[in-house]
Design brief:
Layout (H helix, E strand, L loop, with lengths): L26 H4 L3 H4 L2 E6 L2 E6 L10 H5 L5 H5 L1 E4 L3 H13 L10 H10 L12 H11 L7 H10 L5 H23 L3 H4 L12 H29 L3 H6 L1 H16 L2 H5 L3 H23 L3 H12 L1 H26 L13 H12 L12 H59 L6 H4 L12 H18 L6 E2 L1 H10 L6 H11 L7 E2 H12 L22 H4 L3 H4 L2
Parallel strand pairs: 1-3
Antiparallel strand pairs: 1-2, 4-5
Helix pairs in contact: 8-9, 8-11, 9-11, 9-15, 11-13, 13-15, 16-19, 17-18, 17-19, 21-22, 21-24, 22-23
């Protein structure tokens, strides 16, 4: 039997027989006995027995059930295994082996489903961390130059804040510039600043000085974003796609109104048309700055994606709203005007009544227009009640879609953070290569060009490492866990972060016990002496496979499961 829910590295050897890896066997060797391959095996999951063909479990190599179905595995040898796991998840996972389609049962929560997939060593497509190659392909589709050079560097500088510290600093500076521009635009409309007849001063500055300062700020903000959109357009390889993207139209809306205001006819003419154009341009400029600020906000992006995926629901909402407004406004017009030849009420037309209908159906109600007849009051009551049904049902659907998009955003954020964490770990591991950090602690000042280790040096290393191993193995079990490994490396002069230790433990643990014995520890110390520090890729924990690879739950599982 097998109960994988147990914890503690030293208990895992009792279930090692069920998880023996046979990756060294070829497919031909695994299929030597056709009769055994075609037989039916039983999996008892929490008391519910599932049956399937043994050959069905051979469809996805590297998974837990695949390993059990190989020679010397529990299902291959005994035809039966007990798993103390969720039965609904196993039902879906067996269907994955049969149909190659991985579908989460609705009754299983997302977090539990992910834990089950980790246990069965199946990659969760939802939590798949994109590789550097995947990100590069996505950026190429957005217009990134495919050749190294100045154009590519400029593109990354403006489009990918995570590409370098300079790009991240530029992104933060852009947000700062937007905030300054919006604050200046809002402040300059205050009567104290706007009124030219006020002579009051603040710290020696009068309103004229402030208006001049705000004008300079406006010019600098517009120049900065003009340079930004100009350089982005110049370096992109997909000019037409760049023009079609709505987010770039937002950038244009933030700068074009300023140049419209510079047109002599618009800036000097006091006529109605040109004044309206100038005021409209200023409105578009502030809207452009505000929406540009939203470009850096996860919440605004989620809201935009929600609207994009809810076009059908929004169209239904709009149709219902228009129908309700037309019916209510028509009713109010005829109820409040019994004599259409002598109209004296505020509801003097259906278009005018639409204002009342809109604010009533949307349950706002300013009170500036009120019905005076019983018929009108009845229609007003119907307007309030209709708003509950007209808006309530579509908005609830939109709310669900928003929650789904928000959950996806959180998932993507976690994936990005996990990817950055693994990249940081990999950089730390690579920085340790060739440094021979332990040599000075054990062998003293050994020259870097001294060549390979001699037999005497290897013997000294083994004696020192063995002594350290026994010092940290307080329970004398002959094996050390993560915390003890960290203490051992610290004694050897190479203190490491917990995340790095977890990755190294994964590589040292060759027998999949979840702990490190003396031989595995000695072998790793020798590799450290030679500068042969493994990377996440060497350990089979590449970035795209690294989700939750060192989570607290996985640290307590055998390596064969953690590497899922």
């Amino acid at each position: 039997s097998m109960s994988p829910s147990g914890r503690g590295g030293k208990q895992h050897k009792s279930i090692g027989r069920l998880q023996k890896s046979t990756s060294s066997l070829s497919n031909n060797e695994a299929d030597e006995d056709p009769e055994r391959e075609g037989r039916i095996v039983s999996i008892d999951c929490g008391g519910k027995v599932f049956k399937t063909f043994l050959k069905t479990l051979h469809k996805h190599p590297g998974t837990l059930l695949y390993d059990m179905a190989q020679p010397e595995g529990a299902l291959y040898d005994d035809g039966y295994v007990f798993l103390d796991r969720d039965e609904f998840s196993l039902w879906a996972i067996l269907n994955f082996y049969r149909t190659d389609r991985l579908i989460r049962p609705e009754i299983v929560p997302d977090e539990m489903w992910h834990m089950e997939l980790v246990f069965y060593k199946i990659e969760n497509p939802v939590f798949k961390i994109p590789t550097a190659e995947d990100i590069d392909n996505q950026q190429l589709q957005l217009g990134k130059p495919d050749e190294e050079g100045v154009r590519r560097s400029i593109w990354l500088l403006w489009e990918d804040p995570s590409s370098s510290w300079a790009a991240k600093a530029l992104s933060m500076f852009s947000v700062f510039i937007i905030c300054i521009g919006v604050a200046a635009f809002i402040t300059e409309t205050h009567p104290t600043v706007r009124d030219p007849y006020i002579t009051k001063t603040w710290f020696g500055l009068n309103p004229g000085h402030l208006r001049g300062a705000f004008k300079i700020i406006e010019i600098l903000v517009v120049c900065f974003f003009t340079v930004e959109i100009g350089m982005r357009f110049a370096v992109t390889t997909r000019k037409l796609y760049f023009i079609k993207r709505p987010i770039n139209w937002v950038d244009l809306a933030a700068v074009i109104p300023f140049y419209v205001g510079l047109i002599p006819t618009v800036s000097t003419n006091s006529g109605g048309t040109f004044v309206r154009v100038l005021r409209l341009a200023r409105v578009f400029r502030i809207l452009g700055l505000v929406f540009k600020l939203g470009k850096y906000s996860h919440g605004v992006r989620v809201l935009a994606q929600t609207f994009k995926t809810c076009l059908q629901e929004l169209s239904v909402l709009m149709v219902l709203l228009v129908m309700a407004v037309i019916m209510i406004s028509s009713g109010m017009y005829f109820c409040e005007n019994t004599d259409l030849n002598n109209i004296q009420s505020k509801f003097n037309s259906i278009p005018r009544s639409m204002y009342f209908s809109m604010i009533s159906v949307t349950t706002i109600g300013y009170g500036d227009m009120t019905p005076l007849t019983m018929c009108g009051e009845f229609v007003a009551c119907m307007a309030g009640l209709s708003g509950i049904f007209v808006l309530g049902l579509p908005i609830s659907i939109i709310g669900v879609k928003f929650q789904q998009r928000y959950d996806e955003m959180l998932r993507e954020s976690k994936i990005q953070m996990e990817r950055e964490r693994l990249v940081a770990i990999d950089k730390k591991l690579q920085a340790m290569r060739g440094m021979r950090l332990i040599s000075s602690k054990i062998l003293g000042n050994r020259p870097p060009d001294a060549g390979d280790l001699t037999a005497e040096e290897i013997d000294k290393i083994e004696r020192t490492a063995t002594k350290v191993f026994h010092e940290v193995d307080l329970d004398n079990s002959g094996e050390i866990e993560l915390e003890e490994l960290g203490e051992a490396m610290k004694k050897l002069g190479m203190e490491m972060d917990r995340d790095v230790l977890a990755i190294i433990l994964n590589g040292m643990d060759e027998d999949n016990s979840g702990t490190v014995d003396k031989d595995e520890f000695l072998d790793f110390v020798i590799k450290c002496m030679m500068g042969d520090i493994p990377t996440t890729k060497d350990l089979g924990l590449e970035v795209e496979k690294g989700q939750n690879s060192t989570s607290q739950e996985d640290k307590d599982r055998p390596k064969s499961i953690r590497k899922a």
